[in-house]
Amino acid sequence: MASHHSARPHDHARALAQRVRAMREARGWSRERLSKEAGIAVGTLARLESEGAIQPGFFTVGAVAEALEVSLDELFQETKIVPGLWSAGYEGRDIDSFVSSLLDNRIDVVADVRLTPISRKKGFSKTRLGQALAEAGIEYTHLRGLGNPKDNRAPFWEGRLDVGRARFRGVLRSEEAQTDLERLAEHARQSRVAVLCFEKDESRCHR
C-alpha cells in the first residue's frame, strides 16, 4: 500500500472524502443536513465520503465547499492522519457495518491475526473480506504467524488471561511470528492499522 503522500487519483479521493467528513462532523451536521445545504442528493454525498476510487464531479465538490463555507483549496487540503494500531473484532457485526466503522475511523490496513481466516459469518472469510475491503480502498493482509492456537483460546474466554498470554508469548518467539510482527510494525509506522480477530471484547482475545 502506498503512503499517504501518494499522488494516485484514488488517494486524492480518499483525502477529499476524509476532509469533507471531518468538516461536516466538526459542524455537527448529518449527511442529510450537508446534502440539503449543498443542493445534492444524500446518496451523492455518501459516495463522496466513502473514499472509493470514483472521484466526484467538480460541480459537486464546489457545491459542498460552498455549503461548508470554505474554499476549494481548503477542501482539498489533506487531513493529517495519525498512524498506529487499533483493535477490531467482528463479533455481532455484518460486513457492511464493519467496513463502514473502519472507514469512519480512517483505517488504511486490516491486519488479520486469525490463525485460520475462515468464518461462518458471511463476508468474513479471507477472500470475501479482502474483496469488501478493497472495494472500500482498505488494504488487507493476513498475518498467520500472529494467530492464536486453538488450544489456547479457552484461557482468554474464561478470564485466565495470565495463562493465555504466557502461552501466546511462546508463540511469538517463532520465526514466523517475528516476521509477521515486523510486517505489522512496518504498516503501523505509516498507516492506520486495525488488528482483526473475532471477539468484540479484546480482553477475551489474544490480540
Any overview of this molecule?
The chain has about 210 residues and is of the alpha/beta class. The protein has two domains: about 10-75, Orthogonal Bundle (434 Repressor (Amino-terminal Domain)); about 85-205, Protein-Tyrosine Phosphatase, Chain A, CATH 3.90.190. About 50% of the residues lie in helices and about 10% in strands. It has a four-stranded parallel β-sheet. Helix 7 links the parallel strand 2 and strand 3 (about 140). Helix 2 packs across helix 3 (about 40-50) and helix 2 crosses helix 4. The two termini are about 25 Å apart.
Annotate the secondary structure layout:
Elements (H helix, E strand, L loop, with lengths): L8 H18 L4 H8 L3 H8 L8 H11 L3 H5 L7 E6 L5 H10 L4 E4 L13 H10 L3 E4 L11 H4 L3 H11 L3 H16 L1 E6 L10
Parallel strand pairs: 1-4, 2-3, 2-4
Helix pairs in contact: 2-3, 2-4
